[in-house]
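#lab-general

N.A. 3:47 PM
ok so I finally got the sequence cleaned up, no stray characters, all 446 residues accounted for. can someone with queue access submit it? mine expired

B.Y. 3:52 PM
send it over

N.A. 3:53 PM
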Amino acid sequence: MKKFINSPYAVLLGSLIILVSIDFFLVKESFAYLPYNPNPYLILSVLISAVYGLRVSIVASGSCSLVYLLTLHFNLNYEEVETLFDFQYLSTPLVLSMTSLVLGELRQHSTNKLKLLDLDVLDTAKIQEHLKAKDIVQVKEINELKKRLVSRLETVRSFHDIATSFQSVDESILLQNFIDAISKLFKTNSIQVYIVKELEQSVYQWQGVLNIQFKNLDSLSQEALRLKKQSTLEDVYSLNNFNQSQDFSLMAIPLILEGKIEFLVQIKNIPFLDYIPSNFKISDLYTKWVSSSLVYARNYQNSMKNNIWNDQLQVYQHNYFRDRINEEFNRSKAYMLPLSLLKVKVDTFDGISVSKSMTIRKIICGLLVKSIRKLDYITEGKDQSEYFVVFPIFDAQSVQETWKKIETEFYKLNLHGEKYPIKLSAMVKEFNPSMNSMEDFAGEFI
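B.Y. 4:20 PM
back already:
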């Protein structure tokens, strides 16, 4: 019942009752609203059809036509009117039916089209929601990939820095760079380095004088020296002689050079979250890397001791000067030939990086090579700030003139005007026949 009351048929029925009541009680003389145009039944059918569509329009047009004809039937005087089925009376229900059906069809067509459009809108909304969800997922994936890319870039940058720091030929620099790398890896500064002299007797603190008996080392360090490999708590926790002394270390790393343990690195304190296997593997890689670099550095230093030529600076090394200056002195003394010696010194390299100081040294050596004769030769001094130039058969005045040209060319480069000013000084020593030995001539240069 409730469903019928809320339906369009209830609206139609109620409207017909109202129209019939008005016709019966208020306008009796105009039965079926015959004089009115448009007819109220027509208006009702059209409105119902326009609002509710084709199916309701069929019922509305039929119902309104039937009520219209019944009203006419009960109110016509058939003595005056021959028949009800006259165009005058039938035109209204015909127009009513046709108009209602057309409007109902149009309404139904519009309704169906709107439903299709609503379905399209719903499908579009679903697609948009799906695309939005997919876009959110893609944004998350892109951000994750960016994080991974940044992480990989940082890793590559970190390994590049490590690789650069492990290229030195200075043993102490390599060890310090290794300590810095381990310190960054485990986020700790509690690191001690020992020089292992005799495994069964003692080890000595690196750059110090502390002498530690092997038996007094903690269990982890002893195990690392015995096994000749990096050791962690996992390697010693099951040992019978495991002791957790006050000076206990969390990691011990032996540096093995050509099969022999040379250094022992102890790490006393490591944050819990960094004491993980992946960091152990990286530190093991660093250990092998720096061990190889130390071997190469040691071989390089040994080879340089017997080498007379500095390939980087393109000049002779200082040991060549010691060998040749005695020969030049004896020749000059025997034949009374002029002999001069020029000492060029850089006033200071303080505050200047290693790479920049090397550049400056190359510039100085290049200017010297450019300015001297083929007969002359250049050697390194007693340290990296000194350079000696030997001038056979050349007097001191000529050497002074040569030096002035070199000095002028150097200061044209404006190196003296930078944050760390570089200044050169020179000293000329000339052979004198009264000199009895090479030490009288060049003893202070050796």
